């Protein structure tokens, strides 16, 4: 399984001490390490960032990616539309994608969802509890119920997303808010998941249970069949007389 | 209730005799007549077409539209992206939309769904039977089960759409194909329905049961509250100490 | 619209002072008053209790009930199976039903859901916040987001229910738990909702927002068509040659 | 993986020549052979029938069954309620179950669904086409789209079931009817699927694609974790202070 971890890699390059303490080599590096640690030889992990040509997401890279993870926050608007369309086409053809935390407002997530993807937020060190409501779901395999995250940005409802195919996690925050923090959808032949825990200001991607969910997610989202384009096909009347 | 019926109005203007026999003043005119006939004074119907400035969908028109119906086929690519984004924003803020037949491949439907919206098709006078599988749903009110359409283009599965919030109709065709021909989704604060029966080559929009479904659809899709924009809101920690 | 409010009426008859302070004439009386207050002449409200013959749910009563509300807690096992089957058949034929709070463990709710309907609980005066996640849904009309309930029993996930057709409310509790506190399903031709806020030890059914949700619920759950039995029907091959 | 194939084994024992030509040792024998052929050493298949003590479904048998397949038709009423409750409890604790064809009217399926499970039918050698609408789903792995069944009983909508978690197959029949012929649900910790092709009067369980779906189904429905009972658990306030 080949995974590409995409990060806008912006906060980390501006010298913000808090961010650098948690993610000196970038959020993508920590996420990639977690996948390697948990999936071992089953996975080959690459990273890509906004500043690279074509944001590191050339046709070749996407063609050889089974699952793409997406982290962005402050530079959603700088992602080129052509690259967004390319990623969208790859998902439709079968590539899996996991969108993380502030990636809820990325162009690609809004294109996949068809909604505004807006939510409530507050960055004041709330405790987040991530409750599993689909105990059977692969995303929740091997994590405690709830996952306890001591300090995290609050994301609250109303989260403007389409009704999930599968609602896996609901979080509460110390301020009393709730959030659908883990959910899945199908789009074309590709599987999509969103998982909200994870922020540049907190060491959430070092949390072993969060790492476990991401590893579960890429395993769940990997293609079930060779990639193929869905097109409008003419279907002749005599199609079923096949002898 | 104020409804705007949008039609690309292309086939009808090119002198195709079959199309003109069924729709001498355009498909939109026949659809609009059906709504006026069935909804009477409850509805104020306008039409808009591709050739008009801004395709007839100026901010003023959209602001004063409760439900938009969308028919297009051969000129999807000519619809300006700026207008598509404007319609999308209106739906997110609460405007209802009904997408009809070949509108499955319109830019606005693909933006709302996040999928390719591809399907199988064959234009050879299939008989279509439209079965109600949600007898309780407002879209199906007052129509026989099944609706019988003597001649119609075949649309078949796989129809690449997200799992509907409500699957209301499933059609069969004389060639043996099946199709999820009536379905609903929420997007932002707006309600979306898709209904496939209806084609430029057949008099389907004169069919009394098809007219009934469209009238049901606009009634179902109308906004439930004043339009408002969904945004990312900061939620202070002390929000709930309201006394 | 004719509503029957069913209550096992057990806690109130045993002299528990806390319960009697909030519900001197029974929980059903307070719920019924709320419906009359909010729905006025649109509704005719009756009550029925466990101790009555056939628990007050004779065929005549059910035949003339559009929506049944169900509250029970300590005496689920005393409800006769024959009455449960009668209520189930009425729902299948189109009667609406709203199951309240500890009614999650009633025979009728388990029959409608097909699951165990188990959950976590704690009776220690938690503050409950009830967040709307389906702003468009009739159940949530006119209530603040969130509804704030100062003291309430905690109900927490995992709540073993089938995936709701519509998930309307999610609650958080001061202990950090979350709960899918308002949801809907279709069963046969009948509409079903569950709403968890409400307990014999707290004055929750006097809370104006809770009363509003119950009034919304009975309006939403009322039958859309005359009651009829669903049966296995033979469908002759020539059914569609209707001339 | 241990599978138990349950069959009421009634038609076959009454000397009906058509049935005996297709299923001389019983429908269960043919289904079991198909599973062994396709799953090989991955599966251990047993059978059980109505006439056996406790219908062959003792606690020991259920405890050692990962997935139960259920075929019944003429003797649903003879299945003891105590056995139905036992099967239901096993599903809630994690056992998978696949309900086949006329099993739609079995006690266990109605208990799992909470609906009437009624449908339309006609036994006149219709051709059935089984279309995949969820190409990603394990149930549809390796089967052509559509599966073509030359002769089969017609089952048509309205099929009174709860909205499926996943709708995998939709069938059409030569009479023009449609049917949701393959679908899944979760109940408790157990996975449930329904698959309609298969009848005592036609050799459908010898059809290689139908056999493939059944093999796919038992693989999909097997438990994801050790069996456990879901109960109402008290959750103390200090649960999360775990150090």
Notes on the structure:
Four copies of one chain form a homotetramer. Chain A is an alpha/beta fold and 243 residues long. Chain A has a domain at 2-114 and 181-221: Class I glutamine amidotransferase (GATase) domain (Rossmann fold, 3-Layer(aba) Sandwich), CATH 3.40.50.880. Chain A has helices at 17-22, 27-39, 59-63, 81-92, 107-113, 208-221; strands at 2-7, 44-49, 67-71, 96-100, 120-132, 147-156, 166-173, 178-187, 190-195, 233-234. In chain A, strands 2-1-3-4-9-8-7-5-6 form a nine-stranded mixed beta sheet. In chain A, strand 3 (67-71), helix 4 and strand 4 form a beta-alpha-beta unit. The first copy, chain A, is globular. The first copy, chain A, starts with a strand and ends in a 9-residue tail after the last strand. Chains in contact: A-B, A-C, A-D, B-C, B-D, C-D. The interface between B and D is medium-sized, with 23 and 23 residues.
- Terminal CA distance of chain A reads 40 Å
Largest interface: A-B, 39 and 39 residues
Estimate what percentage of residues of chain A fall within beta strands: 25-35%
- Physical arrangement of strands within the biggest beta sheet of chain A: 2-1-3-4-9-8-7-5-6
Rg for CA atoms of chain A: 18 Å
Number of helices of chain A: 6
Mean pLDDT of chain A: 96
Structural class of chain A: alpha/beta
| CATH homology superfamily of the domain at 2-114 and 181-221 in chain A | Class I glutamine amidotransferase (GATase) domain
Overall form of chain A: globular
Proper CATH architecture of the domain at 2-114 and 181-221 in chain A: 3-Layer(aba) Sandwich
Level-1 CATH class name of the domain at 2-114 and 181-221 in chain A: Alpha Beta
Largest sheet geometry of chain A: 9 strands, mixed
Please provide the ordered H/E string of secondary-structure elements of chain A: EHHEHEHEHEEEEEHE
Unreliable segments of chain A (pLDDT under 50, ≥5 consecutive)?
none
Query: What oligomeric state is this?
Result: homotetramer
State the helical fraction of chain A.
Answer: 10-25%
Number of strands of chain A: 10
CATH topology of the domain at 2-114 and 181-221 in chain A: Rossmann fold
Domain ThuA-like (chains A, B, C, D): 23-221
Organism (chains A, B, C, D): Desertihabitans brevis
Protein name (chains A, B, C, D): Trehalose utilization protein ThuA
Pfam families (chains A, B, C, D): ThuA
